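Example 3.2
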Amino acid sequence: MSEVVNEPAVQPQNGIKGLRHWRYDMLAGLQVAMVSLPLSLAIAIASGAPPVAGLISAIIAGLIFPLLGGAYVTISGPAAGLAPALLAGMLTLGSGDLAAGYPLLLVAICLTGFVQVILSALKAGKYAIFLPATVVEGMLAAIGVMIIIKQLPLLIGVKAVPTKSILAALANLPGYFLRLDVKVFLLGGICLFLMFFFNRSKNRWIKRLPAPVLVAGVGIALGYLFQFEPNQLIKVPDQILHGVTLPNFSGVWERQDLWWSVIVIVITLTLIDGIESLATIAAVDKIDPFQRKSNPNVTLRAMGVSNMLSSLAGGLTIIPGGVKSRANIDAGGRTLWANAYNAVFLLVFTLLGTGLINRIPLATLAAIIIYVGWRLCQPGVFSKTYGIGKDQFVIFVGTITAILVTDLLMGILLGVLAEFLLLLYLLMPSFRYVLRGHLTFRRSFEFLRAHLSGLLKSPVIKVKTIEQAGKETCEVSLSSVVCFNLLHLDKVLALLPRHADVALVVTESGKIIDHTAMEYLHHFREECLREGRSCTIQGMENYYPFSQHSLSARMPDVQLMRQEETLSERQQQMSEIAGRYDLVFSPGIETTLNAQDFVYFRRGDNKQKRNVMSGLYKGRQVKLFDYSHTRAPDYYSEHRHTLIIVGPLEKAIPDFIVAPAHYLERYLVGYREVAVDDAVDNRREFSQIYRVYTKNDADIRGYLTDELIQFFMDNPKFYMEVRGTMCLAFRPDKELEQVSTIPILFSFADLCDKTHAQAGTA
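Structure, written as tokens:
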């Protein structure tokens, strides 16, 4: 075995020190630019702005963000999530005239940036935890619906009448379909189909180029074939400066009738921009191979400065983008300088490739942005929320409805109000107790006042420090924890000593823990784990969850009875297998904490395991379960596999990984690839299918036994990871294992023990 890669694991930094990674960031910037070009054009059109405005904002964001940003691999630029708000703002300020409204909207964008800078100085990013998580998801889903409805006319070749009301736009659709252009509809339908096909394809050659680039290329070719007219194609000026629109500050200042509208637009843009920015950087941090943590307040300041400069140059609002950030990570980007290279390449494309850009059909860009909208509101979004609990589904659907019927700002406020009223309803005794005389009106109002106070005041009852096993532990006693009092808890936890373990004790005085609080507690435990300290939650067994989801809301209501779970067919079969192997079976859903720091568990969010078999198997502890997680930008699409973990073994094994092809390559920070001695036939074939990685120059030759090699050859596309005394394995090319193939994972457990024993005697 010989070493083929020998590069130390360096924690890349931003600023001047980050320039040492220019090779990685430049290549990533090129790929991001190819994604950003069609996306920026499509977002500008969806916003009602000149197409070049999307490119201007993307270029400015790329040049400014590396100098000010508090993130690491996040790519900023115009975002589809703000397109409906920008279009509505433009129509409002221009009294229905997009051309007249755009210079006025630029003033609102500039003021939004100024407000963001002020908020960052006040460290207001932390206040985002006040917003119920389901309201935020409902806002994103509503934006997805709005994008689709507003872009459908462009997809079928009809020039739609701009309208602020989504209901009016929906009512106009039947008339638009009666006037559809067959050639445009055919091209748009093909491009939309290809967006789905390319994004879902697992072919490594197709995945080398981003889907928007491939679809734009197909659109250009079909546009030539169908001989599209200039009015069916995008129009970018030959000189980018010729397309610049300047903000009309004097127009806003002189018209006092616009002031209230501008204030509402600034509040709306600030709220949506802040919510989506913080959500995106948190999601991107979870897929950063180097596990770095962004600073939300610094990022908010960078977005504010970028927005002010973008508006002064005629550009759109700027926020971090999930699609482009994922493309950056997949391409190997390491620092924020990838943003700058992205901007440089975009500028080159714009200056030298205007002729080709102007051959992109408008229907192609509509297909690209419709797919982005679909990702925000696909059925999986609804099923995921319903799985968390019916209470969250009510808030989710209510927020979407409120936004579509009113507007984004009012809809969000109504969603927050609905969450508050729902919590009060859940806490209040039933009115039938008053009617029966068991409870007086006065007493019921006292309950109402007490519960109202409990939703807003600090949930922390007391904090004390104790010694456990010679280590300092901070014990925090809690009452009800909900989104509206999380800020108090966050302040207390931030003041705890960073070296101490934490024990969160949910006391009997608590009445409810809502979904947002459950998410917060889970993320806090993950953060403690990354810092090398433990965090336990005690007393949760006295709270009854609203659903089987591990992060569902829960209450200690004595009248709630645990319903006997009805097992699905898969669960029944897995229960039978567990019995066959003398293992304990648990069908519930549990959150997954990466205590062993497995590389596979580092990426993604919403990490959950279900259908867990655990216990002793041939004298060794095993745990086999169905695992799922989400990854940005697929916030609602679950990636699922059936995993087995074996251990602890009798003694530690050097860390190493056996992975098919290039699987997880970007996440193997600190690992070195090694070559397998291919003098023997089976090892030669093995080295063509698998890659082997080690850590800390470990010699693992004794563990790659002929029997282990043969197992990997008999069961292609297996993934194996060893961390100390623990072994993890699964098949990446499978989703959930068929029940009939689960014994293969137990065969691996047999082999894991044998390999350890043979290596130990070698």
